[in-house]
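Discussion board: Methods & Data

I've been asked by a reviewer to show the raw model output for two of the constructs in my manuscript, not just the figures. I'm not sure how much to include, so I'm pasting the format here to get opinions. Each protein appears as its amino acid sequence followed by a line of discrete structure tokens. Is this the kind of thing reviewers expect to see in a supplement, or should I convert it first? Here is construct A:
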Amino acid sequence: MRVLGVDPGLTRCGLGVVDGGTGRTVRPVAVDVVRTPPDADLAVRLLGISDAVERWMDRYKPEAVAVERVFAQHNVRTAMGTAQAGGVVALAAARRGLPVVFHTPSEVKAAVTGSGRADKAQVTGMVMRLLGLEVKPHPADAADALALAICHLWREPMRVRLAEAEARAAEIAKNHKARLAAAAKQAKTQGAAR
């Protein structure tokens, strides 16, 4: 499976494409950071991000898109810009019928390093090791985009199996409840007939 990982941001939006193989095998395909000028109009900045993401989707043909979920940030303006950039990415993916999954920073850190509290340097180091990179992706947004793709490749199969198991369990519970209701109704009918 090929995944486009996106670390959204207005000034710097990290993009990383990773192929997943059997087991936990991952291979880097491409990585870059889209930049927009801070003094440009918001709509123009979002259009720039959208255009870049569209080109990446056309060029690399991902099968899924993993986007970092906006998590609590002290700077509301930064959080809003990050959310807007993530929304543009999700829209571009939806237009192509691609599944989009949002992962929290702690999910990504835990998937890649084993600790949800890992720092940027630890995440970057593990991304380099897992993908066999000799040069550190720069800036950190690039490494984060690759980490998001890896996280998705490793977590999504488990999430899908869990959702399927929950759906099966709900169906079994529904059928059981219906059988109980039918048995209670039959017992009531037999009791009234006596």
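Construct B, same format:
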Amino acid sequence: MSTPFYVSPQQAMADRAEYARKGIARGRSLVVLQYADGIVFVGENPSRALHKFSEIYDRIGFAAAGKYNEYENLRIGGVRYADLRGYTYDRDDVTARGLANVYAQTLGTIFSSAGEKPYEVELVVAEVGAEPSGDQIYRLPHDGSIVDEHGSVAVGGNAEQISSFLDQRHRDGMSLAEALKLAVQALSRDTNGTEREIPAERLEVAVLDRTRPQQRKFKRIVGRQLVRLLEADNAALAKTDEPSDEASEE
């Protein structure tokens, strides 16, 4: 009689984590940044039908990297949770923290279950507050842990390099055009340090705008509005590089 093959629990969990990380790394990265009037989501996505960013509730947005069918199931579950809680109690009782806890339980249960493979997804749940100090951003890796982020966060294949780039350059109070330009610069950097151009039609951009008069703060930025924002920041950058009148007189 042959001896059953044994794998220690630690090795099994390490193998599952490595499997999930490799799956997430195959997807394109995305970034979430705070700016003066809210939170902006930016990612490279050539598809106009399959979205990485979505609205969950009035002031809450959802971003995900990894396998589309898996994070789409999680998104739909989050919408149902938010709708039920808002209807049963009050709309103000639907928070990013509560939603992050629900996602953490789901991802953690799947990750620790030996009966199914772990989800190859990494999530970001963000909520815009009435003031910048009230903004909340939570990152949820494949194992269901919750990381409370501030300022900027990147998930996906090249997340470490992008996060390092953003940490050095992101600042509080940036305009939407400045934050968008920074996000595109971070996403355009390859692993070898070179930069490539990402055209506007390959970008997916959305915002949680606290200044919107509507109760729902989520809005997609597409088409001419996106091009204007990118061009406006380029024009402002070029203007700062020009010599001043005083310098030219000298």
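Answer (T.O., handling editor elsewhere):
This is acceptable in a supplement if you add a one-line summary per construct. For B, something like: DSSP finds seven helices and ten strands in the chain.
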